[in-house]
């Protein structure tokens, strides 16, 4: 019986090790958007080449074009392509513009979070927790 308990404990400890995300090797890995190397995430810039401009984008200031959207909603996204400081942080930002009566389709964010900030108007918002 003790061998079975030991076996179960070993299995439980092992699954904890393989089911989580690996620890980050560094705090920031600013994306080198000019590199042709493709991997999970983008290669890092040399830290001496990193500047404040890598952590900001003006793309979210521009309203999304909702005139051609059948759902009355459209997005403008900020990711490591236009905001290299987001690389390897497991996040992106988006601006969603909605017409009155617009619908934003249900979606998921595996191992991620979503923050909604309403600038103008009223939005009915829901979520499903598993």
UniProtKB/TrEMBL annotation:
The keyword Transcription regulation does not apply. Coiled coil: none annotated. One of its GO terms (cellular component) is apoplast. This is Cupin type-1 domain-containing protein. Disulfide bonds join 29-44. Gene3D superfamilies: Jelly Rolls. Mn(2+) binds at residues 107, 109, 114. One of its GO terms (molecular function) is manganese ion binding. Its main location: secreted. Residues 1-20 form the signal peptide. Residues 60-128 form the Cupin type-1 domain. It comes from Pinus taeda (Loblolly pine). Pfam families: Cupin_1 (PF00190). Belongs to the germin family. Keywords: Apoplast, Disulfide bond, Manganese, Metal-binding, Secreted, Signal. It is found in: Secreted, Extracellular space, Apoplast. It comes from the Eukaryota.
């Amino acid at each position: 019986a003790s061998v079975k308990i030991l076996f179960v404990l070993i299995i439980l400890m092992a699954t904890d090790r393989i089911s989580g995300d690996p620890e980050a090797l560094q705090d920031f890995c600013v994306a080198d958007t000019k590199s042709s190397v493709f991997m999970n995430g983008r290669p890092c810039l040399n830290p001496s080449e990193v500047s404040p401009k890598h952590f900001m984008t003006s793309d979210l200031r521009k309203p999304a074009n909702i005139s051609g959207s059948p759902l009355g909603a459209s997005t403008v996204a900020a990711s490591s392509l236009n905001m290299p400081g987001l690389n390897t942080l497991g996040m992106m930002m988006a601006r969603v513009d909605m017409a009155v009566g617009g619908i934003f389709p249900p979606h998921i964010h595996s191992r991620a979070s979503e923050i909604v900030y309403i600038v103008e108007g009223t939005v009915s918002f829901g979520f499903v927790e598993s």
